[in-house]
Amino acid sequence: MDPIKQFQEEVQENIASLGRDLDLQALSRIWTREISPHKWAYNFSWMGRPAIQFPNDAWALQELIWEIRPDLIIETGIAHGGSLMFSASMLALLDMCDAIESGQNLDPKVSKRKVLGIDIDIRAHNRTAIEAHPLASRIQMIQGSSIAAETIEQVHQIASNYKRVLVCLDSNHTHEHVLAELNAYAPLVSKGSYCIVLDTIVEDMPDDFFPDRPWGPGNNPKTAVWEYLKSHNEFSIDKSIDHKLLISVAPDGFLKRTS
Fold it and tell me: Which N-terminal residues, if any, form the signal peptide (predicted)?
């Protein structure tokens, strides 16, 4: 057997084995619950900007970006801009690889690949830092509610210029808001690409875990995903990513567009 194929099959069996290990999955949820009060996700940055993400999820996103090769990544929720930098740097690497393979010089100014970030409140110090970053030319930001009609219209106009679109939702985590985002932006996802809904882990936390937040178990991104999928069979949850990562803020949140 071809050694590359053999290794790939071994990896797939590893992932399937993790999917069957219910005790290990439960342990992973306990670990996530216990680490959360320490704000573990706040400890990481990407190219100088705080990312507030689990490293496992970033690695999974990198794999998807390499596989899908998107022209446009849409992100709701900007915060400090670390996720924007991550996506922009991945798109820059795609451009570099394309240039190497084609034998052409890399000119970042002519790249069409872009990250579009949306946030209801882009704080001045974060905007200044993002706009001063070397990757700023690959990033466009919109300030406004991600579910406001004018914002949705603007995003759809921008997306109409791109063929391969990937979406990441990470703003207000209430069921109503995330469901509205899914209805607004999931249709922009190209076939074979993903709509990634972050912080679905809220559903798996204790009832009193978010006393000062409008979301919690029963009212969160995962319940919005479940509701959305009832009437949108063009998307399905990619459970293999959940099983591969185990430690993730997005269980049931990696939605692949299959049709």
Answer: none
